[in-house]
Design a protein that fits this description.
The chain is mainly α. 70% of the residues lie in helices and 0% in strands. It is built from 17 helices and no strands. It has helices at residues 2-7, 16-19, 28-33, 39-73, 94-99, 105-138, 146-153, 155-158, 161-171, 178-186, 201-226, 231-239, 244-255, 257-272, 276-282, 293-303, 307-340. The chain starts with a helix and ends with a helix.
Length: 341
């Protein structure tokens, strides 16, 4: 019987699984029972899954300190409550009222710093854009040594900020600095050596360093945008008799409009919030002519030890930048839609 059963073929049919060892037979039916994630859901969820680590780090690095800073703006945190911020009394809107009271010394100083920052930002962003755009257009032509010149143009952007600004601080020294040596001793443009890091000239020194440090970024972005402009447009314009300035005005600048909209916004935000450049150049006590709002808030928080007032100023600055950014994006988007239509 054993040998006969061994030679007998295995049973087949619907009841074969039940007559066997009690395990369901593998096959399509068993595979359909396993839960599967739809392919469309996997395709949509994978990008968000890959972005999750970056979102968590963004939450920890930016959003959490921002929320804590806004909470501090409603507290009367001074040097007496540094050890335990929770015991600081609730100030409500008093810190904000003190900051916007332009008849009081605190509000008057903040308003003067705000206007100084606006003027500095407009000049710095405008000069960075002009120099970067001119250099990018110049670099479009093929000539010997163009690659080396491009690398030299990007050097200020590649250097660490602290090393570059400290070098400029030595160059702006009155007695032994390179700037006064060239202007006074070599060119004879000034009768006596001027002070660059104090007084009214501090604004010029700060603007010079900011433009020197920021224009390579504009050069890099504009140069990348120029690669998307077809050369046939310039060839057709040259055949029609258009000169270089007409080609730049009629072809280059309109084609670079989307790139310039993003570039100007980024430069504006970077320049308006710049803290490293004035702090390294002047220290924690910037001259009045170069008292940017970032260094002013630092002085209000860490020099006078009034963290509540400094946090209120930071919250007002954040609100101002959000309003300006939203208005800028709204205006530029409407202009783009009208031009497309």
């Amino acid at each position: 019987m054993t040998a006969t059963a061994a030679r007998r073929p295995a049973a087949s049919g619907p009841g074969a699984g039940a007559a066997g060892a009690g395990r369901p037979s593998p096959g399509p039916a068993g595979a359909r029972r396993r839960p599967r994630i739809p392919a469309r859901l996997r395709k949509i969820g994978l990008p968000y899954l890959l972005l999750l680590p970056a979102l968590l780090l963004e939450l920890l690095v930016h959003l959490v300190p921002m929320v804590i800073g806004i909470w501090m703006a409603f507290k009367e945190i001074t040097q007496f409550y540094i050890a335990n911020w929770g015991d600081a009394p609730w100030a409500g809107l008093d810190n904000f009222a003190l900051a916007v009271d332009f008849n009081a010394p605190v509000g008057e100083a903040l308003l003067r710093s705000f206007f100084t920052t606006c003027l500095f930002t407009v000049l710095s962003v405008g000069l960075c854009w002009c120099v970067g755009t001119a250099a990018a257009i110049f670099m479009q032509d093929n000539f010997r040594g163009r690659g080396i010149l491009r690398a030299l143009f990007l050097t200020p952007y590649a250097l660490p900020v602290y090393a570059a600004v400290i070098t400029w601080a030595f160059m702006f020294q009155r007695d032994y600095g390179l700037v006064n040596h060239v202007l006074t001793d070599q060119l004879g443009l000034t009768g006596e050596r001027p002070f660059w890091l104090i007084g009214d000239n501090a604004f010029v020194a700060l603007l010079t360093v900011s433009v020197w440090k920021g224009w390579p970024f504009a050069f890099l972005i504009v140069m990348a945008g120029l690669q998307n402009i077809p050369k046939e447009l310039y060839e057709a314009a040259a055949i029609d008799g258009a000169g270089v300035w007409q080609q730049i005005r009629r072809i280059t600048l309109p084609s670079l409009a989307p790139v310039n909209q993003v570039l100007i916004l980024v430069l504006f935000l970077w320049t308006f919030n710049d803290f490293n450049t004035p702090f390294v150049l002047f220290g924690d006590s910037a001259p009045e002519s170069a008292d940017l709002i970032s260094i002013h808030i630092y002085q209000s928080s860490f020099v006078t030890w009034n963290f509540g007032s400094g946090s209120a100023m930071s919250a007002l600055l954040l609100l101002f930048l959000l309003v300006v950014t939203a208005a800028y994006l709204l205006v530029t988007s409407r202009g783009r839609k009208s031009s497309d239509g």
